[in-house]
Design goal:
Blueprint lengths: L5 H15 L10 H25 L8 H12 L10 E8 L6 E3 L4 E4 L9 E4 L3 E3 L5 E9 L13 E4 L9 E3 L13 H9 L10 H9 L6 E8 L5 E10 L7 H11 L8 E6 L1 E4 L3 E7 L7 H16 L9 H9 L6 E8 L11 E4 L5 E5 L1
Parallel strand pairs: 10-11, 12-15, 13-16
Antiparallel strand pairs: 1-6, 1-8, 2-5, 3-4, 3-7, 4-6, 9-10, 13-14
Helix pairs in contact: 1-2, 3-4, 7-8
């Protein structure tokens, strides 16, 4: 069924009033046309609003707040809010000093970038120090802001923001923070809703994945049943979990292990395995330009961004092909670029294992002109 257009509503209104009063002539610009146009606009709005409300009752037609309500009401699936990344910081004192406590909530940050932006985390537990104690203590911490920006790289948290009882402390993070995700997108929410019927039989790979995704910090999950040499299932399932950056941490694994007992068969063993980020360095390209074109800085930056985006689309365990790298670079400007020479990597980049997710960053990419 197709809703009437504005013009169709106007013509229908005109035909109706002239059917009741044949002598009435609707001339352009007169009062009768103005009143007819006003009623048409009102009718058009009502039709549009009604259509949008009907559309919002369908999974593929609903968006935003409507989709949130629909998923919760029909399938008991709640949209996942943005989550804060978690990790640990190493606090070191290398000289003698007084006794005291570094309280939970102490702010630690990265160095500000060129725009003055920093990433802040806060410790979540107290750290107590005795007189003249010289050591390094590992303390749990959580990002101040929710989202993927909190998945700060290893070694980047180097500034203690708050004033401590001793100024001799230094800090860093030995490992990348993980678990920071943006609010669940409409697309991801729909995908979770679609898997609900598959979870009615618990213990299936689909049910295990759905159960893992019930944990707020988990953005992607993959369940792989183990088989022996003859292809027979062993009763062991490896469940790989990842945040939005393709990474994980011990807390995520622990949370999923606690949740997954509600989704697994009693006789099965589910190994929850945290995802590992596999960052590709040394990506070197030469662009073959068409006649009359020269590679400029804007194009070079856009090529790097396109390649980063290409890697970000890879699923865990997936190989990054050279053709995918070439296609990403060429897509930036088909008029200017004739071809791409991928100097390195020399071969497709294979994930180290099923729990590894291939990613890269702009700083690892060099773009030149052949």
């Amino acid at each position: 069924m197709t809703a009437p257009t504005h013009d169709e509503l106007f013509d229908a209104g005109k035909a109706t009033i002239q059917g009741e009063r044949p002598e009435l002539v609707v001339n352009e610009g007169d009062v009768s046309e103005m009143m007819l146009a006003a009623s048409t606009a009102q009718s058009d709005y009502v039709v549009g609003y009604t259509a949008s409300r009907v559309q919002a009752t369908f999974l593929d037609g609903s968006t935003g707040a409507d989709l949130t309500k629909l998923a919760d009401d029909h399938w008991l699936v709640a949209r996942k809010a943005a989550t804060r990344a978690e990790g640990t910081v190493s606090i070191t004192r290398a000289v003698n000093g007084p006794a005291g406590t570094i309280p939970a909530g102490t702010a630690i940050a990265t160095v500000r970038d060129a725009l003055g932006v920093e990433i802040q985390v806060q410790t979540t537990v107290d750290s107590t120090w005795t007189l003249n104690e010289q050591t390094t203590k590992v303390v749990n911490a959580r990002a101040v802001l929710a989202g993927t920006s909190g998945n700060v790289e290893a070694g980047k948290l180097t500034r203690i923001i708050d004033t401590l009882f001793d100024s001799a402390f230094t800090v860093t993070n030995a490992a990348k923070f993980a678990g920071g995700n943006e609010e669940e997108s409409d697309e991801d929410l729909r995908e979770r809703v679609r898997t609900v019927p598959l979870t009615l039989r618990r213990g299936t790979p689909a049910a295990l994945v759905h159960g893992a995704l019930e944990v707020a910090s988990v953005h992607r999950a993959r369940a792989v049943p183990e088989v022996d040499n003859s292809g027979v299932k062993t009763g062991i399932v490896n469940l790989y979990i990842f945040d939005a950056s393709g990474n994980s941490n011990a807390q995520m694994v622990e949370d999923v292990e606690e949740e997954i007992v509600n989704w697994a068969c009693a006789g099965d063993t589910v190994n929850v395995i945290g995802g590992v980020l596999q960052t590709v360095a040394g990506i070197d390209l030469d662009m073959v330009m068409r006649d009359g074109y020269t590679l400029n800085e804007t194009q070079s930056q856009q090529i790097k961004e396109a390649i980063v985006a290409s890697a970000a689309r890879l699923e865990a365990g997936e190989t990054w092909s050279l053709n995918a790298i070439r296609a990403a670079a060429l897509s930036v400007d088909l008029d200017a670029f004739l071809d791409v020479v991928v100097i390195s990597p020399a071969a497709p980049v294979a994930a180290t294992g099923p729990q590894y997710t291939i990613r890269t960053v702009i700083g690892n990419i060099t773009v030149g002109e052949a």
